[in-house]
């Protein structure tokens, strides 16, 4: 196996990547929509937005791959960032650089690879938009142009995101190491530590803006049955896909977290309890409206939700408990419903 050498400007490249403040941040529904489009447009099993970090490649968005990162030493994308044009490997079994690579010989069995490098405004290579498939294939001229156009959209979005106030606020609030400890690797949502971090921050914003802090407690219905009947890999995919649908349904300013297991908590600033219930209902419908596609079947998944507004002088722990109690009532009354806590 031939690992990619470091670029001559590796220090500057790494600094540019760090300055974007995008590593170890939650999945982005806009980028997820783009990788989903790329996967379907090219008819491949996997589409990724891969960022090349010091010793790893980390996936900001992924379709068709369960892991959140891999070592840089086995990365095809680490080769792709060494050039200005796309790297296309039509058949890894016939390429001496990759034929004995562990990700070729074992899952995900990369046979075809096409990666278009992504650059920042100063033309520092950050990573790639890449396509992967377990069968050999080639891209014609028109397909290469489509891949280039999609990569251009990703670049533009990352640059706009970097300029946004939301990125500035996140940089001020959390270091990269703190973010890594608050990110759930499976779903790429904030974990319970992230929930506890953002609760007082969102409460302070609510007080300043004259809004109320709403908490939505979500639990996937009959999730144990998914693991028992379809296996834990299928269960992981259901969690990942449910997280994608939640993130795509709520507003950009809402905070989506995985509390543990099949439980999720969303923080939302709202005018009243009816607005909070509307958000919960959008989440419920996003999960239930379309089946989740597994490798050999489709699964109709539902979710139960409990909602609570943080009351004056109430602790966030008490409000979470009330939302959890409303969730319990939703399950007791038949599941696949959203209920407000009294």
Task: Explain this structure.
The chain is α+β, with helices and mostly antiparallel strands. The protein folds into 2 domains: 10-169, GAF domain (Beta-Lactamase); 182-340, 2-Layer Sandwich (Alpha-Beta Plaits), CATH 3.30.70.270. The chain is built from 12 helices and 13 strands. The chain has a 6-stranded antiparallel sheet with strand order 3-2-1-6-5-4. Strands 8-9-7-12-13 form a 5-stranded mixed sheet, with helices on both faces. The longest helix has 23 residues, at 141-163. Residues 211-342 form the GGDEF domain. It comes from Ectopseudomonas khazarica.
List the helices and strands and how they pair.
Layout: H1 10-19, H2 29-42, E1 46-52, E2 56-63, E3 69-71, H3 77-80, E4 87-89, H4 102-105, E5 112-119, E6 125-133, H5 141-163, H6 165-173, H7 176-181, H8 192-209, E7 212-220, H9 223-230, H10 232-249, E8 255-260, E9 263-270, H11 273-288, E10 292-293, E11 298-299, E12 303-309, H12 316-332, E13 338-340
Parallel strand pairs: 12-13
Antiparallel strand pairs: 1-2, 1-6, 2-3, 4-5, 5-6, 7-9, 7-12, 8-9, 10-11
């Amino acid at each position: 196996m031939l690992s990619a050498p470091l670029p001559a400007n590796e220090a500057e490249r790494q600094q540019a990547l760090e300055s974007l403040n995008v590593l170890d941040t939650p999945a982005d529904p806009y980028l997820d929509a783009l990788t989903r489009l790329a996967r379907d447009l090219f008819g491949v099993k996997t589409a990724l937005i891969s960022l090349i970090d010091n010793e790893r490649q980390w996936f900001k968005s992924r379709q068709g791959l369960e892991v959140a990162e891999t070592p840089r030493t086995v990365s095809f994308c680490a080769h792709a960032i060494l050039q200005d044009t796309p790297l296309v490997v039509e058949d890894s079994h016939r390429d001496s650089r990759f034929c004995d690579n562990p990700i070729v010989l074992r899952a995900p069995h990369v046979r075809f690879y096409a990666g278009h490098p992504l650059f920042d405004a100063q033309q520092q290579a950050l990573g790639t938009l890449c396509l992967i498939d377990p069968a050999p294939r080639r891209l014609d001229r028109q397909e290469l142009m489509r891949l280039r156009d999609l990569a251009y959209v990703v670049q533009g979005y990352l640059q706009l995101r970097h300029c946004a106030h939301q990125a500035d606020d996140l940089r001020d609030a959390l270091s990269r190491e703190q973010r890594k400890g608050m990110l759930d690797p499976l779903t790429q949502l904030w974990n319970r530590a992230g929930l506890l971090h953002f609760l007082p921050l969102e409460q302070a914003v609510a007080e300043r803006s004259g809004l109320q802090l709403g908490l939505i407690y979500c639990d996937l219905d009959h999730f144990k049955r998914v693991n028992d009947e379809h296996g834990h890999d299928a269960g992981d995919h259901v969690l990942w896909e449910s997280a994608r649908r939640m993130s795509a349904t709520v507003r950009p300013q809402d905070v989506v977290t995985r509390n543990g297991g099949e439980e999720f908590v969303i923080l939302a600033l709202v005018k009243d309890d009816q607005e909070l219930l509307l958000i919960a209902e959008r989440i419920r419908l996003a999960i239930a409206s379309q089946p989740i596609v597994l490798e050999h079947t489709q699964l109709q998944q539902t979710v139960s939700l409990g909602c609570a507004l943080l009351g004056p002088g109430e602790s966030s722990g008490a409000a979470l408990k009330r939302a959890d109690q409303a969730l319990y009532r939703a399950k007791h009354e038949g599941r696949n419903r959203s209920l407000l806590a009294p």
